[in-house]
Amino acid sequence: MSERFTVRVGAAGADSAPDLWGLFIEDLNDALDGGLNAESVRNGDFEFDESDREGWNALTGWSVVGEVEVRREDPVHANNAHHVRVTGPAVLANEGWDGVGVAEGGRYRLACFVRAQGEPVRIEAEVGEGLARAAFVADPGGWQRVEVDFTAVATGRGELRLAVPAGAVVDLDCVSVRPIGSDGEPLTFRPDLLQALQDLKPSFIRFPGGCVAHGLGLENLYHWKRTIGPRHEREQIRNLWGYHQSRQIGYMEYFELCEATGATPIPIVAAGVCCQNTPGGGAPIPESEMDAYVQDVLDLVEFANGDTETPWGARRAELGHPEPFGLRYLGVGNEDQITDAFRDRYARIEDALVAAHPEIAVIGTSGPQPAGPDYEAGWAYVRERGTPIVDEHGYQIPRWFHQNIDRYQAYDPAEAKVYIGEYAARSNKIRSALAEAAYMIGLERRPEVVRLASYAPLLARMGHTQWEPDLIYFTADEVRPSASYFVQRGFAEERGERVHAVELEGVQAVPVALPRAGTALLRSRGATVAFTDVVLDGNRMPEVVTGPEGEGVLLGPIDPAAAELSFTAERRDGEEGFVVRLGPEAPQSFLELQIGAWQNKSTSVTRSDDGIGENDHGPLPWRGVRTGEPLKIRVKLDGPRVRVWVDDELRHDYEQDLRPEQRVVAGALSRAGERGTEYVVRLVNATDTARTAAIELPEAGPVAASMTLMSGAGPDAGVPGEASPATLVDVTAKGDDGIDLDLPPWSFATGVIRTGG
């Protein structure tokens, strides 16, 4: 039986935010090399290194039959320091990314730098077992770039094998295989992934991060000038997510991607400091180098927008793009701590940008959480500076999103506008996607404050993920969009010009309450910890020892609304900290106190609902758990209030959010249509109940609806790496003075209602 409710669309209010929905691209989860980058050869430059990942070296991705020597003498370029010398008979084989793939009839370009020692040498190339073949000649003398096009005779995947004949000695570097596009040139972007991004119709693209922008250490900062020009001349660096960055997709390709998707660029540059998670903290760029760095930022704007008479506009034209890219935004910093060093460096960068390029909107930063010390300090500094836009981030559980649909109603529109640069409801479940949809309706309602938003992360290669959830998963041959992807696409495909007030009648918010019963449990992972002087609700408990495998030790029952636990903890071995769980087991709601969270650098209190957990308070920076040093811990739950003392210091003191969840949500915008006003309508039903939405519009007369409905899967369907379990169905309907739309349980509908018959 369907429950009927009314969606009453009111008068138009503010103009909608025209750039609201965009994309976030960071080289995370092998998103670029092995992903969006159309290059088929893995480590074709022989630049992988032990510093990238333990066990890696210049021949990672290659296998050798015969004599092959890694060399550094007389390289192709100083930024491409390694090459190989192959003495025949020998075969050098590259595994590609789960193989080098070709399609029957497809054309490909094999390119590399070569030089022969002595006589010219013919090198035979083959993909798989005869899927495709080519040959080229290496001449003696200096390095020569050779290119050869070939056509695949069958479809499949296999190694790229380069065979050097007996008696020949050849140097090789920068080996590449790319598909050839319809214009006869090798492709920059993998076509199916590019199409998936184009289908999102992004207003903007953020790049290169995220954490990649400000790097793990000053030597790891992302300097844009080192990522343009011939690929073999670009500086390759260690990726802070634990692999190698070739930077074959650098700033020029980024701007070209923006053009290919119709998006405006939002580059993010480091604010003169590296990431605060760097060992030793977020070091600032040395004073002697700061003026040059500020100039680099100004040069980036000139590279994007300058005419061809300017030095960097001329460089852009030299690289094949005389027309400006139309840069309008530039972000300075990413989740930085607001230290004195940050303040000094940021101010110099922003002041220079405002003076030289007042047409560019500068975006500041407010930390990794939507609340807490970094958030407060970031906003205070933005207010002090008068920065026009501030970047907020927030990865939260679905419940948080349903509770915060009206979050930005409380923001002052006279202050900085908001860019929600990274957000996601933890997990790839349907309930997470619908929570995001409900939240996005809230963002759309407040264009006076919220101007930009981008889900993160965007791309993840199966078997190579460092972060979950992600919007689009992919393998060598497949693109697997998540349910969240189709939510994002639904908002971006149909947009309105004016935001309308919406009143719901016949729905109730879902109450949130503390659990009635639960237990206290201690556990550690990656460490052995002894717990002594354990007192639970006034009862002394025996000593407890937890092991590194993460198994828990149950202390006893508690009332999650009135409990107190104290103990002394001492780590005996290992590198990590320990966890106190308070409450019932998943999927019910519980809290976890993490002592030594995030690489043993912080304390935090996390909350889990429906089997999905995320920080509820913190993380707060801390010295970490140390082997052989006792810690006194006390935790007190008093109704919604949570307090945690570490060595008698009150580190956490907050109240759990018990506001009800808005699980049935509607939003509406309008735009001018060919026959009258068109209403863009969004509807979320994140409940177990089927519902019928009776939509009432501000004007009378016949109407026709064209909607897309995402439904057909339960709230806990959907896992990382698999395509969305929900189905998409096009729905049409007609009515007079309004329209009825059926919403199955756990569904999302978006589309257009046209007036005028």
From TrEMBL:
Task: Return the EC number.
Answer: 3.2.1.55
Compositional bias per record (Basic and acidic residues), positions renumbered to this chain: 607-617
Q: Which residues form the Alpha-L-arabinofuranosidase C-terminal domain?
A: 421-747
The protein's matches in SMART domains, at most eight in alphabetical order, are given as: Alpha-L-AF_C
SUPFAM superfamilies for the chain: (Trans)glycosidases (SSF51445), Galactose-binding domain-like (SSF49785)
Name the segments for region: Disordered. Answer: 604-624
Q: Reaction catalysed? A: Hydrolysis of terminal non-reducing alpha-L-arabinofuranoside residues in alpha-L-arabinosides
Pfam families membership: Alpha-L-AF_C (PF06964), ASD1_dom (PF22848)
The record's keywords, sorted A to Z, are: Hydrolase, Signal
Does the keyword Signal belong to this entry?
A: yes
Q: What class of enzyme is it?
A: hydrolase
Family per record: Belongs to the glycosyl hydrolase 51 family.
> Which protein is depicted?
non-reducing end alpha-L-arabinofuranosidase
